[in-house]
Design a protein that fits this description.
single chain; mainly alpha
Length: 151
């Protein structure tokens, strides 16, 4: 029987609160999408008509995938905090910076130099990713991620 003992344990409340933190940051970026969907829902003749629409389905898919992604990200950051033995805010800021540089920085460089996207658009995405990486690691350090803190 396969076991998952090689995955570091992370306190469930840290995963839940990290998911909430990360998902809130993601929704701040996805807010315009949901705002447009909300306006279309108000303009629809009936609730049934709106819930059968493509807009409702795409909004629900975006919300659901964002929630699942936030939970996985929270576990991953919490597991890295535990695996590295990070206890200070300075250490968690460094860890979050490394996560940001490894996961997000290449896409932002590509968006600026290759795709030539407007800098304000790239900056909003970069700020959201900074909160999702550095902010999340510092938040989880504040809350605590270890299941047995005195071990």
């Amino acid at each position: 029987m396969a076991t998952l003992h090689y995955l570091p344990p992370v306190k469930p409340s840290a995963i839940a609160l990290g998911t909430l933190f990360s998902h809130t940051v993601s929704l701040a970026v996805l807010g315009p999408v949901f705002g447009d969907t909300y306006n279309r829902a108000q303009a629809a003749n009936s609730k049934d008509e709106f819930f059968k629409s493509k807009e409702a389905a795409s909004a629900a898919a975006a919300w659901g995938s964002s929630l699942v992604g936030s939970a996985i990200q929270s576990y991953g950051v919490g597991a890295m905090i535990n695996a590295t033995g990070t206890l200070s805010y300075k250490g968690s800021a460094y860890l979050g910076s490394l996560i940001f540089m490894a996961s997000s920085a290449p896409s932002f460089i590509s968006q600026i130099f290759t795709e030539k996207r407007p800098l304000d658009t790239v900056a909003v995405g970069a700020l959201a990713r900074v909160f999702e990486t550095i902010g999340l690691s510092m938040f989880l350090t504040w809350w605590g991620t270890r299941t047995h803190p005195f071990d």
